[in-house]
Amino acid sequence: MEFPVVSILLLACFVYLNTNNIVLSVHAVESPQYTVIHSDSDFQIRLYKESWWVSAFVRGTSFLNSTKAGFHRLYQYMHGANLNASQFAVTAPVLTSVSPLADGSAYFVRMYLPVNRSPPQPKSELNIQIDTWRSHCVAVRNFTGFAKDDNVNKEAEALADSLNKYFSGNTTAPQDKTSYTIAQYNASRHLTGRLNEVWMNVSRFSGEGCPT
Ligand SMILES: *[C@@H]1O[C@H](CO)[C@@H](O)[C@H](O)[C@H]1NC(C)=O
Ligand SMILES: *[C@@H]1O[C@H](CO)[C@@H](O)[C@H](O)[C@H]1NC(C)=O
Ligand SMILES: *[C@@H]1O[C@H](CO)[C@@H](O)[C@H](O)[C@H]1NC(C)=O
Ligand SMILES: *[C@@H]1O[C@H](CO)[C@@H](O)[C@H](O)[C@H]1NC(C)=O
Ligand SMILES: *[C@@H]1O[C@H](CO)[C@@H](O)[C@H](O)[C@H]1NC(C)=O
Ligand SMILES: *[C@@H]1O[C@H](CO)[C@@H](O)[C@H](O)[C@H]1NC(C)=O
What we know:
Blueprint: H1 5-10, E1 13-17, E2 22-26, E3 34-39, E4 44-48, E5 51-60, H2 63-78, E6 94-100, E7 105-113, E8 128-133, E9 136-143, H3 152-166, E10 180-184, E11 196-201
Bound molecules: 2-acetamido-2-deoxy-beta-D-glucopyranose (NAG) (6 copies).
One 2-acetamido-2-deoxy-beta-D-glucopyranose binds next to loops.
């Protein structure tokens, strides 16, 4: 089962013909900017700048299937299905935010928009929206391989456990293990050397210089 991001990331590589030699140039893929404000043995806390995302809601029971379904709608937006017919180059990571519903899960699949003001609105038939994220802190745990239904929960639990240990005493509410975001950086054609992350908002914790 190939994740469709494959074909997109391939487009990011161009071969330029120079007058004298051929140069293989890897077009830089844009990503949201952050600074690391804390590093631990198995997680980081990052402060992300304000950012814009295009976001597709999918109600479902499978992380993988819902990510694919959302990705397909976002791909169309990036390729001109917006009110300005703007084209966006591929960005990374692709996010899937997961939160439980009484029946199944709510998934928001998101792509980063490399703009510094309000981006164009999506065509209404795509049923997607623009999200503005104000500057905020995110705890991040990385993992390799493919992100899939049978490992994302475990990675999220491991991050929540690390955070509960680290922040013990500073908060009465334990970190919710059932709501999290998976960030995927690589096309599915890359079978090794893959980078994924679990993200959890930590804005409600004090003592790290995070906006609350
Ligand atoms: C993975 O996380 C660890 C702990 O935060 C960090 O030291 C390491 O650099 C990270 N690796 C990558 C590829 O981001
Ligand atoms: C995910 O999609 C595959 C292929 O379409 C399907 O066989 C499978 O039942 C789906 N899984 C869930 C949990 O919906
Ligand atoms: C959309 O296009 C119009 C006309 O070219 C321009 O004035 C406007 O700033 C664009 N809006 C966005 C969100 O890019
Ligand atoms: C994380 O925080 C940002 C900024 O407050 C917010 O827009 C976003 O919805 C939060 N993400 C999740 C998954 O709760
Ligand atoms: C996967 O993406 C990460 C982050 O962009 C990058 O450092 C790594 O080299 C990529 N892996 C492969 C196999 O391209
Ligand atoms: C916990 O709270 C104390 C007092 O407010 C603060 O000094 C410390 O940095 C906090 N620790 C963490 C991990 O936030």
